[in-house]
Amino acid sequence: MQPFLWAVAERLSAQVDAFEPEIVPHARYAVSSQGKQLRPALVGLSGEAVGVLNDDHVTVATIIEMVHLATLVHDDVADAAEMRRRRPTLAVQCGTATSVLLGTVCLPTR
Length: 110
Known about the structure:
about 110 residues, mainly alpha, Farnesyl Diphosphate Synthase, elongated
């Protein structure tokens, strides 16, 4: 499973690098604390259960992580949360407006 999770992390990093340059550092901060990677692992395990993992599974897992990131960022703003995983939330780090913008650009458009 580890190679699959690395592929998802690389794809997620590539997505972040494709954002507007002004928000890339903030997006990197948001994704730098990924936690247990439960959602990508479930995608990978599900894919393996019915066949062979391929690039489509990496894409799906990356999209799920992007949506999850968007919801966490927006939840932290709505809840006025100051800490997440023992470090300042993105809203504390760079402000509410940037956090809302970042959470919005993390949502898939297709």
